[in-house]
Amino acid sequence: MPILFDDDEVAYLNWVSANPKGFVVNMDRKRQMSQYPMIHSASHKLISTSKIGNFTTGDYIKICGLDRKKLESFCEREFGKLPSICDSCTS
Q1: Contact residues for 34 (Cβ-Cβ < 8 A; gap 6+)
Q2: For the chain, what is the domain count?
Q3: What is the DSSP string of 9-61?
Q4: Range of the domain at 25
Q5: 55-91: per-residue pLDDT in tens?
Q6: Sheet harboring 84-85: ordered strands across?
Q7: Does 90 fall in a domain?
Q8: Residue 28 to residue 31: CA distance in whole angstroms
Q9: C-alpha closest to that of 79 among 40, 16, 25
Q10: CB-based contact 52:62 (threshold 8 Å)
Q11: Taking Cα atoms as reference points, which of 53, 39, 43, 44 lies closest to residue 81?
C-alpha cells in the first residue's frame, strides 16, 4: 500500500532508511511539471540523504512503497498518468 509523505521530513527519511529496496514517487505539489510523477529507488541519494532536505516540506510530496507496480497504479489513478522512471537509479 502506498504511503504519502507530505510535510513530514522525519517520517519520510525514516521510511527510506528502513526500506532501501523500496521505491519513492516524487511529485510536484502543483502537478505542473511534465516529468512528474517520477519513480526512484529509495536508496537514491538525491531523494534520500538528510543533507539535502525539503523532500516533503517544499514544492514536492513523496509517495513510497515496496511494490513498484502498485505505485505505478497509484500514480495512474491519482495523477492520471504513469510515473516517469529515473534512469540513474531504477532498472
Answers
A1: none
A2: 1
A3: HHHHHHHHHH-TTSEEEEEETT---TT-SEEEETT-GGGT-TTT--SSSSSEE
A4: 3-85
A5: 999 899 999 999 999 999 999 999 999 999 998 886 5
A6: 3-5, 60-65, 23-28, 38-41, 84-85
A7: no
A8: 5
A9: 25
A10: no
A11: 39
